[in-house]
Amino acid sequence: MKPAPLRLKKDQERRLLAGHAWIYSNEVDTAATPLKGLEPGQAVEVFSQRGRWLGHGYVNPHSLLCARLLSRDRAHPLGPSLLVQRIQAALGLRRRIYPQPFYRLVHGEGDGLPGLVVDRYGDLLAVQVTTAGMQRALPAVIAALEQVVRPQRIVLRNDTAVRAQEGLEQGIDWVLGEDPGEIELTEDGLRFGVAPGSGQKTGWFFDQADNRLALKRLAAPRRALDVCCYLGAWGLRAADAGAESVTFVDSSAAALDQVRANAARNGLEQRIQCRQGDAFETLRALREEEARFDLVILDPPAFIKRRKDEAEGTRAYQRLNRLGLALLEPGGMLVTASCSFHMERNVFLHTVQGAAQRTGHTLQLLLAGTQGPDHPVHPAIVETAYLKTFFLRSLPV
């Protein structure tokens, strides 16, 4: 089917010409090209008001973010050739960087494939499709992945809530091979059991891998606390670096069972203890118990999922950091993270500093980390730079 034209209002092409890939419904000249006449996921060619061709993309007339560009080459629309080319380029980058095949293979706009995320676990690929346009192209996506990567298993992890905003159904589907259950992943010598078919997101958080490696260089803890620990990647890294005791906190009993299994897998089971419960309530309980730690790790889920949640989410980040800092020994290290792209880096740092003032800590910022290179940032799309991780030392009294 020939792509439909999508014409923009006057001067609305400026952001696209600067490299951005998103088009909002209020930027479209609906008198010239009515959105109501288009189907979700339909291919479009985008034009300026004066008729300048801007790129190939796809549309969803039911979404405020109604279109995304994929190609600025008129001879190269979304199709098998483009998908193979982009996935080959993504794989080439990862192969240069990572000695083992555990990484994010495709990171949406950062790899020129908006609406597509692919995490790699050896010969298993976990695929997330978050837009109607990429959903419509899914058969070609799977074919391209099989051609370029040659995996043994592919699971569609389309159980993310963001699909509802695009009018897409949610679910998990194995389109190649069968669910192997738990598989083993290695990260800098540590071994972890993960379940790509059932774990959070796609089973593992590759975006923090480089920051976890930095923990070995910057912290030498005796007593560590890992809050919102999931499978224990941060805390077990601290134990491997020499921590005598690591306390893991998570609301999920299943996650804590996996922490124990991962600790045993690495011979660290004697150094850990687990506490199930809400992060805020558990931190308050630890404060009442007068517990103290010289390393506190706070890596919560996003508190700000939408712009309208910004004020409430900012308060949640300050409260979490205030409770964490209340347990930190002078001279200790706070590792705190936000994966909310709506929270700007400087705002997050200011929020943590406010928490430090409330708890009487004077902080030094030692390292400001971001997502690893398998989560590339599109320079023109600030929303792709979502992860902020700060390593902060509390100055001794």
Automatic annotation (TrEMBL):
<keyword id="KW-0949">S-adenosyl-L-methionine</keyword>
<dbReference type="Pfam" id="PF10672">
    <property type="entry name" value="Methyltrans_SAM"/>
</dbReference>
<protein>
    <submittedName>
        <fullName>Class I SAM-dependent rRNA methyltransferase</fullName>
    </submittedName>
</protein>
<dbReference type="InterPro" id="IPR019614">
    <property type="entry name" value="SAM-dep_methyl-trfase"/>
</dbReference>
<keyword id="KW-0698">rRNA processing</keyword>
<dbReference type="GO" id="GO:0032259">
    <property type="term" value="P:methylation"/>
</dbReference>
<keyword id="KW-0963">Cytoplasm</keyword>
<keyword id="KW-0808">Transferase</keyword>
<keyword id="KW-0489">Methyltransferase</keyword>
<dbReference type="GO" id="GO:0005737">
    <property type="term" value="C:cytoplasm"/>
</dbReference>
<dbReference type="InterPro" id="IPR002478">
    <property type="entry name" value="PUA"/>
</dbReference>
<dbReference type="GO" id="GO:0008168">
    <property type="term" value="F:methyltransferase activity"/>
</dbReference>
<dbReference type="InterPro" id="IPR041532">
    <property type="entry name" value="RlmI-like_PUA"/>
</dbReference>
<dbReference type="GO" id="GO:0006364">
    <property type="term" value="P:rRNA processing"/>
</dbReference>
<dbReference type="InterPro" id="IPR036974">
    <property type="entry name" value="PUA_sf"/>
</dbReference>
<comment type="similarity">
    <text>Belongs to the methyltransferase superfamily. RlmI family.</text>
</comment>
<dbReference type="InterPro" id="IPR015947">
    <property type="entry name" value="PUA-like_sf"/>
</dbReference>
<dbReference type="Pfam" id="PF17785">
    <property type="entry name" value="PUA_3"/>
</dbReference>
<keyword id="KW-0694">RNA-binding</keyword>
<dbReference type="InterPro" id="IPR029063">
    <property type="entry name" value="SAM-dependent_MTases_sf"/>
</dbReference>
<feature type="domain" description="PUA">
    <location>
        <begin position="4"/>
        <end position="92"/>
    </location>
</feature>
<dbReference type="GO" id="GO:0003723">
    <property type="term" value="F:RNA binding"/>
</dbReference>
